[in-house]
Specification:
By secondary structure, the protein is α+β, with helices and mostly antiparallel strands. It is built from four helices and five strands; from the N terminus they run αββαβαββα. It has a five-stranded mixed sheet. The longest helix has 12 residues. The protein starts with a helix and ends in an 11-residue tail after the last helix. Bound molecules: tetrahydrodeoxyuridine (THU). The site of tetrahydrodeoxyuridine has 15 residues, from α2.
């Protein structure tokens, strides 16, 4: 699948972000190995800790629809530098071994492996 399709989906879903506290809208789109796309936006809450990032919304939607094998995820925001996922989202990406992570703003797309973003994600936990 073209990057542009995934990117478009992430930007489109970003428009639905519920971000009244930060005013910072984020979109994400994850591609399954069989070519489907699930997208997400950040959803904030007055009780700040309940806020969920766009990446996790996208991944959890896919899992809820029965998908666990992913080829890549795109994350977009209207920032000067391409956005960088939080630690919790990196750990969730690691849970599903998403091999490629594309981080973008309106002008630039950076590609990372999960190992670059979260080295040794499962080492030593539960003896793995
Ligand atoms: N946020 C995301 O949705 N994804 C990221 O990669 C970084 C941060 C959200 C969480 C919160 O709603 C807002 O952006 C500010 O941190």
């Amino acid at each position: 699948m073209e990057d542009s399709h995934l990117m478009h989906s992430a930007w489109q879903t970003r428009a639905n972000a519920h971000a009244p506290y930060s005013q910072f809208q984020v979109g994400a789109a994850v591609e399954t190995c069989d070519g489907k796309v699930f997208s997400g936006c950040n959803v904030e809450n007055l009780s700040f800790g309940l806020t969920i990032c766009a990446e996790r919304v996208a991944i959890f939607s896919a899992v809820a629809a029965g998908h666990r094998d992913f080829s890549r995820i795109v994350v977009v925001a209207d920032t000067d530098q391409p956005i960088s996922p939080c630690g919790a989202c990196r750990q969730v990406m690691a849970e599903f071994s998403i091999p490629e992570v594309i981080l973008a703003n309106r002008h630039q797309q950076l590609r990372f492996t999960l190992e670059e973003l979260l080295p040794r994600a499962s080492t030593g936990i539960l003896n793995r």
